[in-house]
Amino acid sequence: MILPTGFILREAEDLAPRAIIRQLRRSPTPPSPGSDTHTDVSARGRIASQSSETSSSSAPKSPKILTNSATAWIEPQPFEVFRAVERKDLMFLMEIRDRGFPLLLRKTGDATPLLHAMRIGQSHRDVAIVLLGAFSRYINHLSDEDIVKPRTKMILKALRTNLKLAIDYGLAKSQSDLTASFLQTLVMSEGDKWVWAQVSTISHALNAGTAGQPVKAAESAVRRFATKELGKADLIAALED
To answer: Going by C-beta distance under 8 Å and a sequence separation of 6 or more, which residues neighbour residue 123?
Structure first.
């Protein structure tokens, strides 16, 4: 089954709100106001709060401190990212995507977050889709100026490694349903340079007619580009499509 990049992105963006709703449903319902004592306490609390706000408004403010506290971000450890994958904590994974994307690519031992989700099995397919959606989103938001930066090149290299590992594992374990989507994202990550180079090659093959075997040339180019395991795979319906 082919999952186009557009579908991957929509699916990834849709899964996170569902995770929020599930978490809210698991949270205990706050108690409703019942007794007069509770009302008095609430009233006193409001009065104290108003008094505190009045006094704080007259005191000198420190915008720098407020800004730092509002944007504080503690980088999670590798085990925390893997634990989020195991627990299907999509909210946390989406936060990492927005605030520390390279953490989703980090390899620990012989695994990456994406590979870890695939190893767990079909129960975590939605996690794999969210991670793949994060990869596609990162690539789509890159500008021409960003692509030439050394840090961006390093991130894209790690991203391609993640995708190639995922393709290899999917083929080895007969989990090829996401292979086409992995491959699409992999080609996207290479940018226009590789695509135009292949367009030129295939154009020459087309001009040579049937002897040029343009279809075979295109297939071979993609297989060579992707990964050694993909190059040896003969029957992958998603790739053929």
So the answer is: none
CB-count exposure of residue 185 (10 Å: 0-12, 13-18, 19+): buried
Q: Measured between alpha carbons, how far is 167 from 13 in angstroms, rounded to an integer? A: 23
pLDDT in tens, 56-109: 444 444 344 334 445 688 999 999 999 999 999 999 999 999 999 999 999 999
How high is the pLDDT of residue 27? 45
> What's CA 238's distance to the chain center, in Å?
21
What token pair was written down for 24?
């809210």
Round to whole Å and give the CA distance between 9 and 85.
18
Q: Which two tokens stand for residue 104?
A: 């989703």
CA–chain centroid gap for 90, Å, is: 10
Going by the DSSP 8-state scheme, the letter that residue 211 receives in this structure is G
Q: Which of 237, 2, 1, 5 is nearest to 132 (CA)?
A: 5
Please provide residue 23's backbone torsions phi and psi, each rounded to the nearest 5 degrees.
-70, -40
111 beta partners: 108
